[in-house]
Amino acid sequence: MAGAMLLRRDDYEGGTTRDEAAGQIPSAAREVYEMMCVTEGSAEYWVEDQHYKLAAGDVLLIPVGAMVGATLKARGCPFERHGLWMSRRYMTFLRLQDEEADYCFAKAEAEHRYLLRLPPDVFEGIRLAFETLAEECQNDRFNAELSTKAILAALCVQLNRLIQGQGDDVFLAGDGNRLAPVLSHIHQNCTAPISVEGLAERFNYSPSHLAHSFKKQMGTSLYHYVLLRRLQIGREAMLQGVPVKEAYQKCGFGDYAGFYRAFVKEFGLSPQQYKKKNQ
Questions:
Q1: Which regions in the chain score pLDDT beneath 50?
Q2: Helix (H) and strand (E) counts for the chain?
Q3: Which of 35, 61, 71, 148 is in Cβ range 3.0-4.6 Å of 44 for a Cys bridge?
Q4: How much is the pTM?
């Protein structure tokens, strides 16, 4: 049965993360669908080109494939959040049961906004569901796996209905960080030649200032970020059926050999191996 093949325990996970110290999470493309429920502290998150200052009461929805990075501001106040992660395969399983199971992620991606800032009474119900899911995922009680799947599905339904019922203003836009236009330009034009010098001139930076600011905020160099973005476009193209040896043409590489070398160096798998593993 095809559906049963998707029901692997490692296709979903829930848990609680608590960071006691400040730190950087370098930008990278998510390979899973992620929901985050912030319960304490604060942090700055980039999702694609949207910059958010997260605080307790926020829910962040990150579609698969989105570029995400963070700066944790945990000095004197730990940053704690509940998380839910689902693989592409598990989301496919949910969509086989209801084609709009991924409504919340699809809506976030379509609107290019990813943050829900909920009223306290609404957030409390969401928080409790996340907390229960994390507890079930981390113990071996009788029927824990069955319970986990039920809570996971119910949480998706709860968020889907909340978003569907609130209309177009439920998601918050980013806060207008100065680097956002630079990132937006990269995301829209990364298959074309891009340089620090060209971006600095376009957005009124000095090249050294732009390179320094980018590395400080994104946790990786501008060059590496562009490379990651191109590889992500190539990965998505392959998973959507583009032949492996043609995917490089979709993402700004001059030849397949260069795409292959960069892919293996970044992900530890060849493009063929990655496609076989994830399709």
A1: 1-7
A2: 12, 10
A3: 71
A4: 0.91
